Amino acid sequence: MTHLRINPSILSADFVNLEAELQRISSADAVHVDVMDNHFVPNLTLGLPVVRRIQQVSPLPLDVHLMIEDADRWAPLYAEAGAASVTFHAEAATAPVKLARELRDAGAKAAMALRPATPMEPYLDMLGELDMLLVMTVEPGFGGQSFLDLTLPKIRRAAAAIEGAGLDLVIQVDGGITEETILRAADAGATVFVAGSSVYGADDAAAAITALRTAASQDA
Ligand code: DX5
Ligand code: ZN
Ligand 2 centre from 67 Cα, in Å? Predict the structure, then answer.
């Protein structure tokens, strides 16, 4: 069976104590780092200098999610900083094929994200350029929003297209992932789950990660 991955998002962590907050999730598969520029989304978080420092102290690989304009210019710099995977938004990239190749050339996994209302069909022919497709399950910008079930058919269509083409990229979901919603996303074909508030909002983050793994593995 496919390994299901839980990537907690530090968007819901204490930004003044990031090193300790990273230790709380050491049983996870990667740390999801949300970079926001107050242009692509109406929120502002952190940028390259902070990500470089997180990279130095993190016990886990970095899964960087860029919610920024001008992804073509910025995304390769995050790969060069050592991020294990770099996700740019399809809506913010001018030349997504070129960009995905640059990310791989820089040694990172290349990933592309779609907002809830962005269809995946225009990108079918470039799926082979990607290691991961992120189907946003909320409108990007903020933690703590409710999971959008309307994204489930897109996850299913992406999973079918990936299988049909014999590709090995994985589908990530991000937004509103809880013990209650994770199985719906898993059944639709997602195998990498970002969880912010449901992990960092718990007293015991390690237990929350285990609970998400268990809930994702249930038989529907
Ligand atoms: C939202 C971010 C998410 C966010 C998820 O724009 O991309 O990674 O942290 O938070 P939750 O899990 O609380 O929905
Ligand atoms: Zn994210």
Answer: 8
Domains and CATH numbers, the chain: 5-216 (3.20.20.70)
197, 200, 209, 212, best to mutate for ligand 1 pocket (most atoms within 8 Å of CB)? 197
- CA torsion, points 14, 15, 19, 24, in degrees to nearest 10? 30
Å from CA of 196 to ligand 2 middle: 8
Among protein residues, the one whose CA lies closest to atom 7 of ligand 1: 140
Measure the CA–CA gap between 18 and 153, rounded to whole angstroms.
36
Rounded to 10 deg, the angle between the 48-57 and 71-80 helix axes is 20
* Nearest ligand to the CA atom of 12: 1
Task: Please give the order of strands across the beta sheet that includes 109-114.
Answer: 5-8, 192-195, 170-174, 132-136, 109-114, 85-89, 62-67, 31-36
| pLDDT score for 37 | 98
Of ligand 1's listed atoms, the one at least distance from the Cα of 178 is 12
**Which ligand lies nearest the alpha carbon of 63?**
2
Distance, CA of 13 to CA of 18 (rounded, Å): 7
Question: Residue 194 is encoded by which pair of tokens?
Answer: 């970002």
Residues 149-205 pLDDT 10s: 999 999 999 999 999 999 999 999 999 999 999 999 999 999 999 999 999 999 999
